[in-house]
Amino acid sequence: MKNKDLTYEEAILKLESILKELEEENCTLNDSLDKFKKGMDIYNYCNELLSKAEGEIKILLKDDNGNMVDVEFPVEG
């Protein structure tokens, strides 16, 4: 499965799994390097998704004049 097929939540779970494997398993240097590369790919993918979401939020928070609007989000609890 390629990263682009993953939701943000699925990517985070996969990244957590890779981190756990790196911490727990007795991997060879090559295996560790491969897992690190996969983890970095997923990390970069997650950052890309977050940046896109942030851009969409900024667009939604602009008023008719293109100015940012301060919006107070309700706090739960």
Automatic annotation (TrEMBL):
It catalyses: Exonucleolytic cleavage in either 5'- to 3'- or 3'- to 5'-direction to yield nucleoside 5'-phosphates. It is an enzyme of class 3 (hydrolase). The keyword Transport does not apply. The lineage of its organism: Bacteria, Bacillati, Bacillota, Tissierellia, Tissierellales. It is found in: Cytoplasm. Coiled coil: none annotated. This is Exodeoxyribonuclease 7 small subunit. The keyword Transferase does not apply. GO terms for molecular function: exodeoxyribonuclease VII activity. Belongs to the XseB family. Bidirectionally degrades single-stranded DNA into large acid-insoluble oligonucleotides, which are then degraded further into small acid-soluble oligonucleotides.
